[in-house]
Automatic annotation (TrEMBL):
GO terms for cellular component: cell outer membrane; efflux pump complex. Its main location: membrane. Residues 360-394 form a coiled coil. Gene3D superfamilies: Outer membrane efflux proteins (OEP) (1.20.1600.10). This is Transporter. Belongs to the outer membrane factor (OMF) (TC 1.B.17) family. The keyword Hydrolase does not apply. The keyword Membrane applies. Pfam families: OEP. It comes from Flavobacterium faecale.
Length: 446
């Protein structure tokens, strides 16, 4: 049977002429997906982007330096009313215009945060965000691995069903030819030949349906690993041996990636709350500036005092203190919102822990049941095949009816399909068990 399956797989793979056949083990498929699938690439880009987020927050703690420049023309100067006593004319009022028609200023300013609680918390949050995206990248990889493995095994099962149909088609064709020969010689009834023809037609229809299903499932697999759809793939038989999984080791839920992602989100929400509470703290910063200004009755640029333009410089150094006193309870409301978000996330964490424990228990139960089912179906398949062969021999010797033969062939086909389905159930349960232990990467490390 194994030789027949391998032969059928090879025949199926060679149907597309002129194309290179890519041998695809499960490890190859997963590795290809992690390198080419958009989900995996985007997760790594988020990790890279987190480094830039850290740089952005760190910049707030560094000196901020800026250069400024301006050019102003004042067609109408503002006048100011002053007491004439200042100019020796008490009791009079003087209206004077100050300034020049043209003024131009160039300068540089520096601002340095000396104490800002939100900046310090922002640095912690940025680093925690990087850790979050690194864990999320691991989670994305595990999701890609699980999805690829499930589809990979489904392709295998469909190919096995195709191999079985090929075998049944060959056997049924031989029996149909025998019945036709008997009918031509007047040793069989027309209804017997018609029944064999209908049975043969049904098998051919099933073959077409399975072939189409294989194509669709293979296309889905290629999509999930990011492989060009036109690529012809070959899946080795050796990847599907049933080896009982270790069931004694109870996994530690706290090490599961899904759990770690939520715990890191909890850290981020805690920091977000602290960032809001930073609004209660005062801020202190240092500022300094140096400027150069030119004023006159004409455009100051490149002009000199002889042209009526005068240049001078000025500078300032200062400390800026801001002490929040009352914000209309805005900060308090934001802190309360952050508390609610934290409480909600902690409920998600508790629920996720229960769900992870449930996944392990269910996977363990399904593995145990699948192993029993595989053994039973294997024995049933072997017995059904022995019965089919015996009835086939009896039919050729005229000791069994056509109805007995058809029933035996159908029973044998059903038994083999049930065995194949049991293997698929086992492999899917095995993936869930490996996932529940947080060991999905072992599928590419072995």
């Amino acid at each position: 049977m194994r030789k027949l399956i391998l032969l059928t797989f090879l025949t199926f793979a060679l149907t597309v002429k002129g194309q290179e056949i890519k041998k695809l083990t499960l490890k190859d498929a997963i590795t290809y997906a992690l390198e080419n699938k958009a989900d995996a690439k985007k997760a790594k880009l988020k990790v890279e982007n987190s480094e830039y987020q850290i740089q952005e927050v760190r910049a707030r703690a560094l000196p901020q330096i800026a250069a400024t420049g301006s050019l102003n023309y004042n067609p109408i100067l503002q006048t100011t009313v002053i007491d004439g006593a200042a100019f020796g004319a008490p009791g009079t009022t003087i209206q004077a215009a100050f300034g020049q028609k043209w003024s131009s200023t160039a300068g540089v300013s520096l601002t340095q945060a000396l104490f800002d609680q939100s900046v310090f918390i922002g640095l912690k949050a940025a680093k925690t965000t990087r850790e979050f995206y690194q864990i999320n990248d691991q989670l994305t990889e595990e999701q890609v691995i699980e999805r690829v493995a499930n589809n990979y095994y489904q392709v295998y099962v469909l190919r096995q069903k195709l191999a079985l149909l090929e075998s049944n088609l060959a056997t049924t064709t031989k029996v149909r030819d025998i019945v036709k020969g008997q009918y031509d010689n007047g040793l069989a009834k027309r209804i017997d030949l018609d029944r064999m023809t209908v049975n043969l037609s049904n098998i051919k229809t099933q073959k077409i349906q399975i072939t189409n299903a294989i194509q669709l499932q293979e296309n889905t697999l290629k999509f999930y690993i990011g492989m060009p759809i036109d690529t012809v793939i070959e899946i080795p038989q050796s990847d599907f041996e049933v080896t009982p999984a270790a069931l004694s080791e109870t996994p530690n839920t706290s090490t599961r990636t899904e759990f770690l992602v939520l715990k890191k989100q909890e850290e981020l929400l805690e920091l977000q709350k602290q960032s809001v509470m930073a609004g209660y703290y005062p801020t202190l910063s240092l500022s300094a500036s140096y400027n150069y200004i030119g004023q006159g009755q004409q455009l100051p640029w490149f002009a000199k005092p002889s042209n009526g333009v005068y240049w001078s410089d000025f500078s300032a150094i200062g400390l800026n203190l801001r002490v929040p006193i009352f914000s209309g309870f805005s900060t308090k409301a934001k802190v309360s919102q952050a508390d609610v978000q934290l409480k909600s996330l902690r409920e998600d964490i508790n629920d996720t822990k229960l769900a992870l424990d449930l996944d392990y228990k269910n996977a363990k139960t399904q593995i145990e049941n699948s192993l029993t089912t595989i053994q039973n179906q294997k024995e049933n398949m072997q017995l059904a095949e022995e019965i089919r062969q015996n009835i086939n021999n009896n039919f050729l010797q005229g000791l069994a009816s056509l109805t007995d033969l058809l029933d035996a062939e159908n029973a044998s086909t059903d038994a083999q399909n049930n065995y194949t389905a049991a293997i698929l159930d086992y492999k899917l349960a095995e993936i869930k068990l490996i996932k529940s232990k947080g060991q999905l990467k072992s599928l590419i490390n072995n």
